[in-house]
Design a protein that fits this description.
The protein starts with 19 loop residues before the first strand and ends with a helix. The protein has helices spanning 33-47, 53-60, 64-71, 77-97, 106-121, 132-147, 150-176, 182-188, 195-206, 212-215, 218-238, 253-261, 265-291, 296-318, 320-323, 357-366, and strands spanning 20-21, 342-343. By secondary structure, the chain is an all-alpha fold. Helix content is 62%, strand content 1%. It is globular, with a radius of gyration of 19 Å. The model is unreliable at 1-6 (pLDDT under 50).
Length: 368
């Protein structure tokens, strides 16, 4: 099978994706996944989030319910439902940000991001135009304020800020017409992935409440960033075909490496995967160090980090959004899948930090 389901043109990454090094429990899914999906889709339709059947089909092709129930395969179903609805809503915004449309300039992305953040902090601010998307957002914000503690809400807003700042940075880089260097991308590219956005809900759903001095300790923050890097690097492989029509090219890890090494995208894949695997090994080693002597709350949080990494791979391999991308298909193919292979060992076995200052701190924490 090709890297994506057969379409009008082949993938620039080659015939199939590389094997993923991920020695973590796989294929965990929340037991109430089907009900969560049905209720989330009913919610989307009640607000008319998608203007027509075609947009609805592509919105559902994100498989946001599958993502939510794989990265949080246990815990309170009501919290997982709210997280799922947030993901459907956020993917609609993400599609606008990635559309390449003339109006989606850096200024527009930044302007929308600021207004969204102020709405999260103050639902009555009335700084977004009325419409189905805003009315759905208002519902999400009201219910999120009611469910989360003040500390959890602050974590969620910080995670949303990461996503929006990362999206604005990527828009600015694309608008400038130049690909960032590997160190810049390693430091900032993964923000748009929204790792802390997701991990807040992982803890909320499972009732994990770490004290601030543990949650924000240098070692746990390094581990969180490493998880985000792996998930972001994986997403740049699975989603590559979806955005390969954009000019200037999409700012992603494969294109950054291709520009740095002066090679086509397929030639950059081995180097991109090598660093991804090196970070994955670091993640496993640092997580094991933090497990030593960890109390039950921290142990469950660390387990959730692993579920986030492994669940993201399984979700992306099945999502028609990526396996039958819109720039190749008039409608998503519900049967489209990637050929998902797992590697037993990392493609780069080095345990030393890479020559990227932005990542060196993670190895310092693992060796502390």
């Amino acid at each position: 099978m090709s890297a994506a389901a057969p379409g009008p043109r082949p993938s620039r990454l080659g015939e199939r994706l590389p094997a993923f090094y991920c020695p973590l429990p796989r294929d965990l899914v929340h037991p109430e996944a089907k009900e969560v999906e049905a209720r989330a889709v009913a919610w989307l339709d009640s607000f008319g989030l998608y203007p027509d059947p075609v947009e609805r089909a592509w919105g559902l092709a994100t498989h946001s319910a599958d993502f939510s129930c794989r990265v949080i395969p246990e815990g309170d179903a009501e919290a997982v439902l709210l997280f799922t609805q947030w993901n459907y809503w956020a993917n609609a915004v993400d599609d606008w940000q990635d559309s390449g449309a003339a109006e989606v300039r850096t200024a527009a992305v930044a302007e929308h991001g600021v207004r969204l953040l102020r709405t999260l902090e103050n639902p009555a601010a009335a700084v977004l135009p009325d419409g189905p998307v805003t009315r759905a957002l208002t519902d999400l914000v009201d219910r999120t304020h009611a469910l989360l503690t003040p500390f959890e809400l602050r974590r969620f807003i910080e995670g949303t800020r990461d996503w929006l700042l990362g999206a604005a940075w990527q828009a600015a880089r694309a608008e400038a017409g130049g690909m960032p260097g590997p160190n810049d991308f390693a430091a900032m590219g993964g923000l748009a992935n929204g790792t802390r956005f997701s991990l807040t809900w992982s803890d909320v759903a499972r009732g994990v409440r770490l004290p601030a001095d543990v949650l924000y300790s240098p070692a746990l923050q390094a581990l969180t960033d490493a998880a985000g890097f792996v998930v972001s690097a994986d997403n740049d492989l699975f989603s590559y075909d979806k955005d390969d029509h954009l000019e200037p090219p999409e700012v992603n890890w494969v294109n950054v490496i291709a520009r740095a090494e002066g090679c086509p995208p397929a030639g950059a894949v081995p180097s991109a995967v090598a660093l991804r695997d090196r970070v994955m090994s670091l993640f496993l080693r640092l997580r094991e160090r933090l497990r030593e002597g960890a109390g039950p709350e921290l142990a469950r949080h660390l387990e959730g980090l692993g579920q986030y990494v492994a669940g993201s791979i399984a979700w992306q391999s099945r999502a028609p959004r990526y396996a039958s991308p819109r720039n190749r298909y008039a409608l998503p193919d519900p049967e489209a899948r990637f050929e998902l292979r797992y590697a037993d060992t990392p493609s780069d076995p080095s345990t030393r930090p890479p020559a990227l200052p932005a990542l060196a701190r993670w190895w310092q924490q693992a060796d502390a």
